[in-house]
Amino acid sequence: MKIRVSELIVKYLERLGVEYIFGMPGAHILPVYDSLYNSNINSILVKHEQGASFMAGGYARASGKIGACITTAGPGATNLVTGIANAYADKQPILIITGETSTHIFGKGGLQESSGEGGTIDQVSLFKGITKYNRIVERTDYLANVLNQASSILFSENSGPVLLSFPFNVQNELVDESILDSVVTIKRDNTGYLASAQIESLSELVIEANNPVIIAGYGCIHANAQEQVGELCESMGIPVTSSLKGKGVISENSEYSLGSLGVTSYGNAHDYILNKSDLLIFLGASFNERTSYVWDAKLLANKKIAQVDNDSAQLEKVFKANVAINGDIKDVVAGLLESLKKKGAQAKNFSQVQNYIQVLEQDSDNTTASEFKSRFPLIEKLFQKMEDNYPEDTMIFDDNIIFSQNFFNVSMKNRYYPNSGISSLGHAIPAAIGARFAENKKAFAILGDGGFQMCCMEIMTAVNYQLPITVVMFNNSTMGLIRKNQFQQYDKRFINCDFINPDYEYLARSFGIQYYKIEQESELEELFSHDFTDSINLIEIMIDKDLFPNYVSKR
Description:
Structural class: alpha/beta
Low-confidence stretches: none
Strand content: 15-25%
Oligomer: single chain
Largest sheet: 6 strands, parallel
Distance between the termini: 60 Å
């Protein structure tokens, strides 16, 4: 049966399992929107295309499914760039559909033309570095090949954004619906062969080590390997620290948790690894700038290293490993547990770990963490209340990062999503909205007042669709990180960091949402007497602009 290309696109999305598509219509993409009219796909109208790409990313992170967004040509597509770059850095499976001027206009300078002809914007080149695959589909005779290429990327273990742009006239062309029968739209089982010799080598390293440490990253959560990692640490008495994205691989209230590892963390992991450990086991954790303390060689010195990752490109990218395994983390850890059991491996003396940490925390010279906490008692108490009141089924999207990293213990029953991609301001609110479409769970967006002003209109998207979320905004009337750096490194020469805020109570009232302002700890009890589950809320937390975290940014 002959159908329009616009209908074929929608049917392709349906077969991929796309449930929501975030975007904003424009003239050049209206044929696809018209085909969405009778589809079971829910099209979500956003306030800005950047919000659409962030929502698609939040949806993908929360659901594990393909996120999707749709825009018109020209500025509709270019407004997506930051969100798509964020998704690319985080390897999120995002399918982007954009419109384009008709092919007979190419090179003539048509309104919003992005063909790259005749001096117009070259959309393919613009997105080349932040997508795994992008194509302007000028003809239908290779449409099946294009869709198969898109599917292969979206379903790969190391996925990323895919952008397909369809000229207006191509959207209206007729094609045979049977094209879809030759397109892969279901993820294949990619379970690979694990070399038993590598598993055996890893188990020998564990047996030989006196003080091993597991460094768990988001790869453990992505592989659904939390149970296996928990069993490994408990059965063998191995402490666990996580990367920022890996918070919650094991519950951070567990006795086996050393907290989060990273340059902005004031926990015990850094000291224990530096001075005590003799084996580091990286599980789905990249040794990036934050986790590595800007690649401090002392962290790895005089230690054996094992690394497991499903992305071969991550293996030994920045360090040499004694054992490096490319495989599914859940399968590898399960194989390791079996090998250790067969060999009768004895658990490590975990009481030594506990004693070391106890001494460390009592050490009068360990003032960095206490100094940090003393500066932000209100925020520490806020996160303790969140932790107590929402111990499970809660999603936290966090642009601020440093407070949550140090004050919020993530349980295995919650999900913490730091803005780790390209650390873009304006991410948390739309990402939390996208996640809320994916999961019927409580959602918090945590950010500063600078980032809030970049994306606050997307709150109206939540209002439009009656989607409960809670926004926690830290108000210090400054770009906090910039002011900190200018204070520490530029002799207090403050420039372009301070600003005047609007009255957020009136703003919340205009949105028709609940508003709470917190200035002191005594107000938190009343705040958490309210149930945020079924409402849209803005919580404004007042902090001093001249109180900074005491780490120094290195560049």
